[in-house]
Amino acid sequence: MNKLSNKTKGIICILFSAFCFSGMSSFINLSGDLPTPQKVFFRNLVALFIASITLLNKHESFKPTKGCLKFHLLRSSAGLLGVFGNFYATTHMSHTADAAMLNKMSPFFTLIFSAIFLHEKVKFRQALAIMGAFIGAMCVIKPTFDNVELMPSLAGFVGGLCAGAAYTCVRHMGNKGENGHFTVFFFSAFSVAVTAPYLIFNYHPMTARQLVFLILVGVCAAGGQYGITAAYTFAPSREISVYDYSNIIFTAIEGYLFLGHQIPDMLSIVGYIVICAMAIWMFFYNKKEHTLKNS
Q1: Contact 108/164 with Cβ under 8 angstroms?
Q2: What is the tally of helices (H) and strands (E) in the chain?
Q3: Residue 236 has what DSSP assignment?
Q4: If 163 and its partner were Cys, which of 2, 106, 150, 169 is the partner (CB 3.0–4.6 Å)?
Q5: Any residues with CB less than 8 A from the CB of 105 and at least 6 apart, and which?
Q6: Alpha-carbon distances, residue 151 vs 116, 126, 259 (angstroms)
């Protein structure tokens, strides 16, 4: 891999991350009818273990960078709500690809929150892309009272919104020089601490099979988190971010093969195309802007 360019390494890492997150979605479903907080607890318990080992092996600090604690708390709160929304949608929607697509609204929400809180200017074409992505999301959500999956769809949409808020905090802390490994550790520890009381008082008995699937949820989540962190270490977002949408393809294939031949309806497919088209448009637009800026 040393002979590969940094961009190629970044693409490989982001594809690995997308594959891991699609595996996480599949294992969430395969773990069966367990309470969402219980699934979230095991997802983050495994990630906490892996993040702790990483910090120890690298001899890195278990303390936040000065001035970042409040942003860690905000990022963890928003991130945990995002995970709850995504897990609930993944478990209760008939097509896991729908839930994954709604979660991919997070980059557009990051643009909005970055403009509001980090004072980063949103240009006209970016605003159009955000509007287009919302239209695509409505195709997936199908906001009518006749839609029996309306609540899970809205949960997935809110999950994407909260993930966007969390990524905005991560971006801000990164600008302050915060260690990415510690950010993963803090979020995992926060999530375990918040969800542990639920297990103490409302633990749902599990089979060995369910426990294995929940551990695999955590392994895939950690793999996805570290994969995307490594990807953006090798190459900037403008060059590789569009490849993250391969997660939808992986999720759709796994849904068909392992979760009862899931096939999204035509309106959902239209929504996928619109959201992905907006993401691809923004990818090329940002790349062109960067080229002109540095020419």
Answers
A1: yes
A2: 12, 0
A3: -
A4: 106
A5: 133, 137, 157, 160, 161, 164, 275
A6: 28, 29, 21
Which structure tokens are listed for 273?
Answer: 């195309």
Query: Which is higher by pLDDT, 144 or 116?
Result: 116
How far apart are alpha carbons 3 and 213 in whole angstroms? 36
**Dist CA 130 CA 109 (whole Å):** 8
Say how many C-beta atoms besides its own lie within 10 A of residue 70's C-beta.
10
Q: Which own/partner contact pairs does 1-10 have at CB distance under 8 Å and 24+ positions apart?
A: 6/234, 6/235, 7/234, 7/235, 7/239, 7/240, 9/234, 9/235, 10/230, 10/231, 10/232, 10/233, 10/234, 10/235, 10/239, 10/240
- Angstrom CA distances, 137 to 99, 158, 193, stand at 10, 11, 32
Cα–Cα distance for residue pair 113/117, rounded to 1 Å? 6
Query: Which amino acid is it at 241?
Result: S
34-75 residue pLDDT tens: 999 999 999 999 989 999 999 999 999 999 998 899 999 999
Instruction: Yes or no: say if 198 and 38 are a contact pair by the CB < 8 Å rule.
Output: yes
Name the DSSP class of 142. Answer: -
- Measure the CA angle with vertex 64, ends 110 and 234; round to 5°: 55
Between residues 167 and 219, the one the model is more confident about: 219
Q: Which two tokens stand for residue 147?
A: 């839609």
